[in-house]
Amino acid sequence: MTAIIEQFAHFTPSCLYIYIQFVDKPNGLTMHSPNHLLELFQRYREDNRFLQPPNELYAPIDYILDIGGKRIRPLLVLMACNLFKEEVEPALPAAYAVEIFHNFTLLHDDIMDNAPLRRGQPSVHVRYNTNTGILSGDVMLIYAYDYLLRVKESREGASTELLRLFNKSAIEVCEGQQLDMNFECRSDVQIPEYLRMIELKTAALLSGALCMGGSIGGASRADVDRLDLFGRKLGIAFQLQDDILDTFGDPEKFGKKVGGDIVQNKKTYLLLKAMEKADAPSLARLHELMEDGQLSDGEKVAAVTEIYNRFGVREEAQELQQLYTDEAYAALEAIEVASERKSGLKQMTSMLLGREY
Fold first, then answer.
1. What is the number of other CB atoms lying within 10 angstroms of the CB of residue 298?
2. 84-128 residue pLDDT tens
3. 3-state SS track over 277-315
4. Average pLDDT, stretch 155-184?
5. What percent of the chain has pLDDT over 90?
6. Do β-strands 16-19 and 117-118 pair in parallel, antiparallel, or remain unpaired?
7. How would you classify residue 259: left for phi > 0, otherwise alpha for psi between -120 and 50, otherwise beta?
8. By the 8 A CB rule, do 79 and 213 touch?
9. Rounded to the nearest 10 degrees, what angle do helices 313-334 and 269-277 cross at?
């Protein structure tokens, strides 16, 4: 029977809703809708809240897990598992581990950046205090490993493989964060360095979530490698799109004020490409704008955006983002399961990369 798909998506910074209904059972296996998988995950989350003493340590964990988030990473764990296996419940502890780890990194990032808000709400270190934020983040990391231990081993060596995949992603996220911090103090950052940084900081955990889910589902080593490639290409495309939207997006559709990267002098692809293409006077003007503390945010954003437009960096970014998108789809197509079993991940990719400008 042909799959009947009813699709509606609403993408905001605080939530991702996906409604896709599959009535097929490709190869005799049920394909769970992303919405159903999100519901399964949320029920697991509710059954595993951090309601224990000391409240000062654990309340901040529930707080950051409750203030929104798209749940993309745990959803990818479950969807990748479902590519190869009908039962996804065995992957729920790993999905929760990935979500706990992701939020741990956000909590500590906010402290390092002295960011007052997270998803429109006070950051943990603001709502509580910095020492609490550090300690709560530390115990989140430990609990991520604790939930990995709750995944039942489906075959010999599966637990070791799961731990290896998680550790690889976690280490790469930390490496990416350090590179991003290094870039703040450098004026000679090159585009390949930037792409490597976002592969580590953004894409590594997406690919890790997919690989972990695939491993739990019984994927072959070759298909786990294909999931890794798919996640990395998807993550880079997603971050490039985020760079574009931050400058050229519609604030109402993007979900936040545009121009934040310009105001903060972030070394995005747009800025690096502008520096690469600009003539001498325009390059000097860019440096002047980055160093001028007298301009209002609006004036700075408008002036830098005008230089971007003059040298066509938006179009170059869009072309590169499309290249990585195409490579992500190619990696997904190469996974050795029936094509219809990949429909959910294809729809997910389309929605993630279909945000409007």
1. 10
2. 999 999 999 999 999 999 999 999 999 998 889 898 899 999 999
3. HCCHHHHHHHHHHHHCCCCCHHHHHHHHHHHHHHCCHHH
4. 94
5. 76
6. unpaired
7. left
8. yes
9. 130
> Which parts of the chain fold into alpha helices (H)?
34-47, 55-66, 72-84, 92-113, 124-127, 130-148, 158-183, 191-198, 204-217, 221-248, 251-254, 260-263, 269-277, 280-291, 297-310, 313-334, 343-352
- Closest among 264, 204, 290, 214 to 239, alpha carbons compared: 204
CB-based contact 341:297 (threshold 8 Å): no
Between helices 297-310 and 313-334, what is the axis angle to 10°?
80
Cβ atoms within 10 Å, residue 77? 31
| Residue whose tokens read 């990935």 | 98
- Looking at 39-43, 98-102, 250-254, 329-333, which range is the least confident one? 250-254
| Nearby residues of 92 by Cβ (< 8 Å), 6 or more positions away | 40, 41, 44, 78
The pTM of the full predicted model, rounded to 2 decimals, is 0.89
Residue 1's pLDDT band, with cuts at 50, 70 and 90, is very low
- Specify the higher pLDDT residue, 31 or 276: 276
| 327 half-sphere exposure, CB direction, 13 A CA radius | 16
Residue 218: both structure tokens together? 């019984």
Report the alpha-carbon distance of residue 109 to residue 143 in Å, rounded: 18
pLDDT tens string 249-278: 877 665 567 888 999 999 999 999 999 999
Residue written as token pair 């070791």: 160
